[in-house]
Write a structure and sequence with these properties.
Helix content: 25-40%
CATH topology of the largest domain: FAD/NAD(P)-binding domain
Radius of gyration: 26 Å
CATH architecture of the largest domain: 3-Layer(bba) Sandwich
Number of domains: 3
CATH class of the largest domain: Alpha Beta
Number of strands: 24
Distance between the termini: 31 Å
CATH superfamily of the largest domain: FAD/NAD(P)-binding domain
Low-confidence stretches: none
Shape: elongated
Strand order of the largest sheet: 14-21-18-15-16-17
Number of helices: 14
Strand content: 25-35%
Length: about 450
């Protein structure tokens, strides 16, 4: 067995862990302390989850001031406040700029690398750590932690079993989302072993699966409502997939229980279900409600800026336009399609009609004759009040973050040190902190990571 000694060890080389390592090493250098800092990362490369953030474009922070930023933190906002002010969004921008990463700020105060390459963010973090003398041991999977005059960490590295001894330990192992990036929940087990409480865990910022969107679905007995993303699409789901909706109003209600949540913004139909920024903001409350046994429905208003009355007048006007004597006579179906093409993207119309069969109905008027009727009021109702039951949600396999985690009541917000185990620090997604999509989660990871690293280093002065 290979044995190593490091003053500070960080388990987990993601956003929080790399920033914790940098913060610890830099604090030691500025304080004239000859400390060694080591990151243990089980994946072949650090920052795997950062690489897929924002579909590879990496929205790495949001530049809103705290009073606005904090409203986007779903759990743990009071706890995060001190860490945010210690290393806020402007400090994060300055950090990456100092590492040679040019940045841009887009709509919604979302910051990206100017290259729109997440690899630039990962490379900058690794470069900054190496610049401060941090050792990053990749391919090193921790198997156990014990205490004996400091922390003893057993792991398996490429050369075989290994053991690290350290005075200060930082756990930054992330949550359960995207397990292929290395987030498999190990940190929760270790936190519990040190006496910590782990609040209930569930997927957040995830796709919702609408009734009839998937086929061959097998219920997941371990997690109510979980529908794995791998289940195949139905015919309707296949028609909807790829459609992007903008400037829509969404609301979710529980059967017999009233409104759960509402949002305005964008949504996308994908191979998982319906997702996108507005759906992600709804999903936390939806998943929590479904886990508690609620039956939910989603309503979409495709024309929220127009009242039903005004929209009906518009639809009737389009119908009359199609009936003008100067026009070539049109069949009822063609007139209906003309109206919808004026109100919806063309690629959406087949699926929209599938979902709203009462827009066009066929009446048999004799044994040999039928007549197609177009209901203009039903067109308006479908546009303003498109309602679908929610069968479930995509789980940890593709959710953005894990809600729940190590109780923040048991961690000092001023230092990120455990109140249960002196010398142990926790940061990032392993804590009971989660936020909206839009750069908020990475910012809280950077803020809590920096504070944990600085605090661990200062405690050894």
């Amino acid at each position: 067995m290979n044995s190593y000694r490091s003053d500070i060890v960080i388990i987990g080389g993601g956003a929080a862990g790399l920033m914790a390592a940098y913060g610890a090493a830099r604090q030691a250098r500025l304080g004239g302390l000859p400390l060694t800092v080591t990151v243990l990362e089980k994946m072949p490369r650090p920052g795997r989850k950062i690489m897929i953030t924002g579909k590879g474009r990496c929205n790495f922070t949001n530049v809103k001031p705290w009073n606005d930023f904090s409203t986007h933190i779903s759990s743990g906002s009071r706890f995060v406040k001190n860490a945010f002010y210690n290393f806020d969004c402007n400090a994060v921008l300055d950090f990456f700029e100092s590492q040679g990463v040019k940045t841009v700020v887009e709509r919604g105060d979302r910051a990206y690398p100017a290259s729109y390459k997440s690899s630039d963010i990962v490379d900058a973090l690794v470069r900054a750590c190496f610049g401060e003398g941090v050792k990053i041991a990749t391919g090193t999977e921790v198997s156990g932690i014990s205490i004996d005059n400091g922390f003893i960490i057993d792991a398996l590295e490429a050369a075989g079993p290994a053991r690290w001894k350290c005075s200060r330990l930082i756990i930054s192992t992330g949550g359960l989302s995207y397990p292929g990036t290395g987030s498999t929940g190990d940190g929760y087990t270790w936190a519990r072993s040190f006496g910590h409480t782990v609040t209930p865990l569930f997927p957040s910022l995830t796709a919702l699966v609408l009734a009839g969107y998937k086929t061959d679905v097998v219920p997941d007995a371990s997690m109510k409502g979980h529908i794995d993303r791998s289940f195949p699409l139905s015919e309707t789901g296949s028609k909807l997939r790829g459609i992007h909706l903008e400037n829509i109003a969404l609301s979710v209600s529980a059967a017999g229980g009233g409104l759960i949540a509402e949002e305005f913004g964008e949504a996308d139909f994908t191979d998982g279900g319906i997702e996108g920024a507005a759906i992600f903001r709804l999903s936390r409350k939806c998943v929590k409600a479904m886990l508690n046994g609620a039956r939910l429905s989603l309503k979409i208003d495709l024309k929220p800026a127009v009242s039903s009355e005004d929209l009906l007048e518009r639809v009737r006007s389009l119908w009359k336009e199609a009936d003008k004597p100067s026009r070539r006579p049109m069949r009822e179906k063609d007139k209906c399609m003309m109206i919808l093409r004026n109100l919806l993207p063309a690629e959406m119309i087949p699926a929209f009609l599938d979902c709203h069969p009462r827009i066009m109905t066929l009446q048999r008027i004799s044994k040999t004759q039928t007549k197609l009727w177009v209901n203009l009021e039903n067109i308006v109702k479908a546009l303003k009040d498109w309602e679908m039951d929610i069968d479930g949600y995509v789980g940890y396999e593709r959710c953005v973050v894990t809600a729940g985690g190590v109780s923040t009541d048991e961690v000092s917000p001023k230092t990120m040190e455990s109140k249960k185990c002196p010398g142990l620090y926790l940061c990032g997604e392993v804590l009971d902190i989660d936020s909206d999509t839009g750069g908020y989660n990475l910012q809280t990871a950077f803020s809590t990571g920096m504070l944990a690293g600085q605090s661990a280093s200062s405690s050894l002065a």
